[in-house]
Write a structure and sequence with these properties.
The complex is a heterodimer of chains A (345) and B (118). In chain A, 33% of the residues lie in helices and 16% in strands. Chain A has twelve helices and ten strands. In chain A, helix 7 packs across helix 8. Chain A is globular, with a radius of gyration of 22 Å. Chain B has 118 residues and is an alpha+beta fold. Chain B has two domains: 29 residues; 82 residues, Roll (Ubiquitin-like (UB roll)). Chain B contains four helices and four strands, in the order H-H-E-E-H-E-H-E. The longest helix of chain B is centred in the first third of the chain and has 15 residues. Classes of the chains: A alpha+beta (345), B alpha+beta (118). At the A-B interface, helix 5, strand 7 and helix 11 of A face helix 1, helix 2 and helix 4 of B.
């Protein structure tokens, strides 16, 4: 599969999400934990590369607002029953979801069965419209806030790739808007027309000798890579795991397998395309990248290769894959490679 | 089957132990990052502009530290950037920022009272 085809297929990857309103919020809004028919559950498809704040407006408009209106809650302007977009948050297995992470990344981190191929579909989430957990999530999610944070991330990626944010900063305002609109409305054509300006295609499969013939500007200095590694849990972890935050909404979910998102260790460095001398004619592999990120100096140390799974875009990636191959097609919309490392079953 | 998987992870297979140990070492090391604060526009200049900050902190902690040094209340606007270029998410780890965007072991933080970049 050529990178173009892979990019298009990844872009069209969607996660079906099944939403329930948190019972406590339902009681506050409707004086009943049971929602009226046909509003009990809401289903929505979220693109893996997109972000939750880009779907909250639709969820509110098509589900929550009509439900309030039809439930005889007349004064929608009344503060006690109105719903603000910036108060909306999502929960899975008792844990608030970080809204500034791509949806696909959240799914790879939290739905532990991904590594075993028994995915949870649809992904069952609880939506909250009250008591925003400000100590666990960045305050004030909104479409605009998400757009701002996304631009910051894409500038970070540009800086790692090229040593400056020039490519992004040089975009015309209308191009920036098109990039963001393309992401928000999930339009491949709109988004990739601008993406191609920021990240010009290069052939990473070429040999180092061939690379010297190419203009140097075509090759990135480094690849933006971020690892999310879940250390093996100790026997004590069960006590203070996510179970304590389990609300009434998730008490029927088996908590023993819940992955605690706060336990992930995030590490990123600008990832060189080639190995360090003397092996500098070889491409950096995912295993090399992991060693570099976690400062494992012994190149022979590779127990993690057989005991851990590396997920990128929901796909289990062989550890010997060159990073530059992944960078060609498995990047998220913010131009980062987000790699999730969990223990293999 | 899934029970066994959870069990082996909890017991710590050799590989998982290596991974866990590495992460633990990285997290526990009392490493410091040299941070240089530079004011932009009308923002006041700090008496001391270079600090050593724990690398395990989040960017949010660095913003709060800067606010404290400036004597800024949380209601007063303050825009904080890395390398005159972008504002990282508040939950990004200072160590990762230093490794990606630091120069000669120093991370440059720019701050302004009005939006300055991007």
């Amino acid at each position: 599969m050529d990178p173009q085809t892979a990019m298009r297929r990844l872009w069209s990857g969607m996660i079906p999400i099944e939403l329930q309103l948190a019972p406590a919020d339902a009681i506050e809004l409707l004086a009943s934990a049971v929602l009226p028919e046909p509003f009990q559950t809401f289903y929505v498809l979220v693109p893996r590369v997109s972000y939750l704040p880009f779907v909250t407006a639709k969820i509110k408009e098509r589900w929550l607002d009509p439900m309030l209106a039809l439930s005889g809650v007349r004064s929608v302007v009344d503060d006690r029953v109105s719903i603000k977009e910036s108060d909306i948050w999502f929960e899975y297995n008792g844990q608030p979801l970080r809204w500034h992470y791509p949806a696909g990344l959240l799914y790879d981190m939290l739905v532990s069965d991904v590594a075993r191929g028994e995915a949870e579909l649809p992904w069952s989430l609880t939506i909250h419209v009250r008591k925003f957990p400000g100590e666990k999530l960045i305050q004030g999610p909104s479409t605009q806030h998400m757009r701002d944070m996304f631009m910051a991330m894409i500038k970070e990626a540009d800086f790692i790739r090229n040593g400056s944010t020039k490519r992004v900063m040089d975009l015309a305002k209308s191009d920036q808007m098109q990039l963001l609109d393309g992401l928000e409305t999930h339009s491949y054509e709109k988004y990739f027309a601008i993406h191609a300006i920021i990240v010009p295609a290069h052939d990473s499969r070429m040999t180092p000798t061939a690379s010297t013939a190419k203009p140097k500007s075509q090759l990135p200095k480094a690849i933006p890579v971020r690892f999310y590694m879940l250390p093996a849990s100790g026997p004590d972890d069960a006590k203070d795991g996510p179970a304590q935050t389990a609300s009434e909404s998730s008490s029927n979910v088996a908590m023993r397998q819940a992955v605690d998102i706060t336990k992930f260790h995030l590490s990123q460095i600008p990832m060189p395309l080639m190995r360090a001398p003397p092996a500098n004619s070889e491409q950096t592999t995912v295993a090399d990248a992991f060693r570099l990120c976690y400062e494992i100096s012994d190149p022979a140390s590779n127990a993690f290769v057989s005991n851990c799974v590396c997920l990128c875009q929901g796909i289990s990636i062989p550890w010997e894959t060159p990073i530059s191959w992944l960078a060609d097609s498995l990047f998220y919309a913010d131009c980062f490679l987000h790699l999730v490392v969990v223990a293999a079953s | 089957m899934s029970g066994m998987a959870a069990g082996s992870a909890a017991a710590g297979t050799p590989g998982a132990a290596v991974v866990a140990g590495t992460a633990q070492a990285a997290a526990d090391q009392p490493k410091k990052v040299v941070v240089r604060f530079r004011s932009t526009g009308n923002a006041p200049i700090l008496k001391k502009s270079v600090y050593k900050i724990s690398s395990a902190q989040r960017f949010q902690a660095l913003i709060l530290f800067l606010r404290k040094e400036l004597g800024y209340k949380s209601s007063e606007p303050l825009f904080v950037y890395v390398n005159s270029a972008f504002s990282p998410a508040p939950d990004e780890i200072v160590n990762n920022l230093a490794r990606c965007f630091g120069l000669d072991g120093q991370l440059t933080i720019n701050y302004a009272t009005t939006p300055a970049w991007g």
